[in-house]
Amino acid sequence: MIKEAKVIFHNGKQYIPDVRNVKLKAPFRGRPEISNVKVDEQALIDICPLGAISLNPISFDMGKCAFCGECAFAFPEKIKFTQDYKISSNKRENLIVKEGENNFIQFDKEAIRLEVKKTFGKSLKLRQVSAGGDNSCETELGAAGNANFDMNRYGIEFTASPRHADGIVVTGPITENMAGPLRIAYDAIPEPKIFVLCGVDAISGGVFTDSEAIDRSILKDIKVDLFIPGNPSHPLTIVNGLLDLTR
Ligand code: SF4
To answer: Quick one: angle between helices 235-246 and 136-143, nearest 10?
Structure first.
């Protein structure tokens, strides 16, 4: 008994008591801030391999960004990554940060479907579909349920069968080969259900955007309830996004 008590005392609290208010440290890269300092704009745009930076005004699309940090290394006076991990949103356009507008990422509570608010506030079972993913976001989704981040305390869990799920979390750019299975898994989930895109590849295709081997046509007919940026997404970004959607 004393031995067990010693182990418990030694381990301390393994879980994060408040996932809403964690102070992360660099090198974690979260929400970027763009200053009004004048720089060679074309050089700034050209440095991004994913076309995540655009002009007039200079904007930074977190749905396309791989968070490689190259733009901030080359133009530190212009772009700075904060450690703000609350970067998920239910609107795609809210993932775009503009020059001089360094605000928190907005979540449009009014746009959340009524049945989502009413049904999933205390329990949310999700089926994860890796549609050509590289196992990075998948690993972080697994970590979101570990003893540290413990999203299970909010009733959010993954389930093996889509029949037992309330929604799908997609990772990966949605390859041709996975487009059909993703559709089957989505159709197998009873209504009401949610559809979540996790990670840059799922949100925009990422580095695979122009590949002929992806088939993202499913996104034309399904409304996305939550976009979780990151490459891969941080567990705190995942948990906070799901809580914003369902609480
Ligand atoms: S951090 Fe994002 S925006 Fe900057 S260069 Fe990398 S991918 Fe592009």
So the answer is: 70
Residue of the CA atom closest to atom 5 of ligand 1: 48
Distance 164 CA to ligand 1 centre (A): 38
Give residue ranges with CB within 6 A of ligand 1: 47-48, 50, 52-53, 60, 65-71
The Cα–Cα gap between 54 and 18 comes to: 36
pLDDT digits 0-9 by tens, 125-178: 999 999 999 999 999 999 999 999 999 999 999 999 999 999 999 999 999 999
CA distance 239 to 21: 12
Where does 61-168 have alpha helices with state H?
A: 70-74, 114-119, 136-143
Domain boundaries, the chain: 109-246
For the stretch 3-47, pLDDT in tens is: 888 888 887 778 899 999 999 999 999 999 999 999 999 999 999
Whether residue 182 has pLDDT greater than 90: yes
**Structure tokens belonging to residue 159:** 């389930």
Tokens (6 digits) for 223: 């409304």
CATH level 2 (architecture), domain 109-246: 3-Layer(aba) Sandwich (3.40)
Task: Work out the burial of residue 158: count CB atoms within 10 Å of its CB; fewer than 13 is exposed, 13-18 middle, 19 or more buried.
Answer: middle
